[in-house]
Design goal:
With about 150 residues, the chain is of the alpha/beta class. Helix content is about 20%, strand content about 35%. The chain is built from two helices and eight strands; from the N terminus they run βββαβββαββ. Helix 2 links the parallel strand 6 and strand 7. Helix 1 crosses helix 2.
């Protein structure tokens, strides 16, 4: 399972002109399930992203996680968006292949599992809609963009 984490000051997902998910300061998480991923892999990825210290402390060092953004216990928001194109293979030719991505039914199941798990342990979690044509708007803070991959 892989994710692309973007530290944002704000982000939102729009589908057919309507905002379906919107956050303030926190993380935009583009999430991709790959063939062979399991719930255990999703759990590892979620724990890693929640604990990853990519928010600045008073000295400007990345010392705080999204669970404690300001060092005072304030959690940042999460916007979790399905993104199967993270599994793109561009090693040959010029058209990406997506055979490494989980099949749609399995991808949806793991995405929904991940969202349910993170909602159970984090205060603000918004989402896009699996399989929809989404417009993602964000203000990247830093910019800070971190690829994260966890394998079984």
């Amino acid at each position: 399972m892989m994710a692309l984490l973007q530290r944002v000051s704000e982000a939102r997902v729009v589908i057919d002109g309507a905002v379906v998910g919107e956050i303030g300061p926190g993380l935009l998480v583009l999430l991709c399930a790959e063939r062979g991923d399991t719930e255990a892999v999703a759990d590892k990825l979620l724990l890693k992203l929640l604990k990853l210290r990519i928010f600045s402390d008073a000295q400007g060092k990345m010392n705080h996680s999204v669970q404690n953004m300001d060092g005072q216990g304030r959690a940042g928001d999460l916007l979790v968006v399905s993104q199967f194109t993270l599994a793109a293979d561009v090693s040959s030719g010029t058209r990406p292949g997506f055979s490494a991505a989980a099949p749609p039914d399995e991808g949806r199941r793991l995405y929904e599992y991940a969202v349910a798990r993170v909602r159970a342990i984090h205060p603000v979690v918004q989402t896009g809609r699996f399989g929809a044509d989404m417009k993602v708007h964000l203000v990247n803070d830093g910019p800070v963009t971190i690829p994260l991959r966890v394998v079984g």
